């Protein structure tokens, strides 16, 4: 019998694997949280599928999402990234990634881990929504508004409320799997 999934992932095996194995599962490792911050910020204005298809290229281009290395990127390195056909070559997003790596380190210094900081917005545990259809899944929330505002105050770029909400979904801070999806109750 075929598993019932959220309908957004029906496109192909890549999408289904991401949905089944990652999306909505709580992430507490700073390295993975940063990876999703980078990917989500590049996704702004594009489809997630576009980013997912290029994920391995991003991983190679951005030193395995090592935020300590990225925070030290030179203008030569950012120029090199601008000529990398495997990623989204948007100068503002590339520069934002370098900036966000620096801000990420500042938050770690203040809170011990970035995970402690970001998960504090949901009191350390996933918010469980009960969407019946994709139309019931919001693009933002009061929490994503507050988190995006705080990130902006801290100097982060390309992380508005919609991007932040997508990040919250990807890292399991919010569970928006449809009520009949098999992953929901895992």
From TrEMBL:
- What InterPro entries does UniProt report for this protein, alphabetically? Adenine_glyco, DNA-3mA_glycosylase, DNA_glycosylase, Tag
Which domain of life does the UniProt lineage start with? Bacteria
Name under which the protein is recorded: DNA-3-methyladenine glycosylase I
């Amino acid at each position: 019998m075929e598993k019932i999934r959220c309908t957004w992932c029906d496109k192909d095996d890549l999408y289904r694997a991401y949905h089944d194995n990652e999306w909505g599962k709580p992430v507490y490792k700073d390295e993975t949280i940063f990876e999703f911050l980078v990917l989500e910020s590049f996704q702004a204005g594009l489809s997630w599928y576009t980013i997912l298809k290029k994920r391995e290229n991003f991983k190679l281009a951005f030193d395995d999402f090592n935020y300590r290395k990225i925070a030290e990127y030179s203008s030569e390195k950012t120029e090199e990234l601008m000529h990398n056909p495997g990623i989204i070559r948007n100068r503002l997003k590339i520069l934002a990634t370098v900036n966000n790596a620096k801000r990420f380190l500042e938050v770690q210094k203040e809170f011990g881990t970035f995970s402690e900081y970001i998960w504090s917005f949901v009191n350390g545990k996933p918010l469980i929504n009960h969407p019946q259809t994709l139309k019931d899944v919001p693009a933002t929330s009061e929490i994503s508004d507050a988190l995006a505002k705080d990130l902006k105050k801290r100097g982060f770029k390309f992380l508005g409320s919609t991007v932040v909400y997508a990040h919250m979904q990807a890292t399991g801070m919010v569970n928006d799997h449809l009520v009949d999806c098999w992953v929901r109750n895992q």
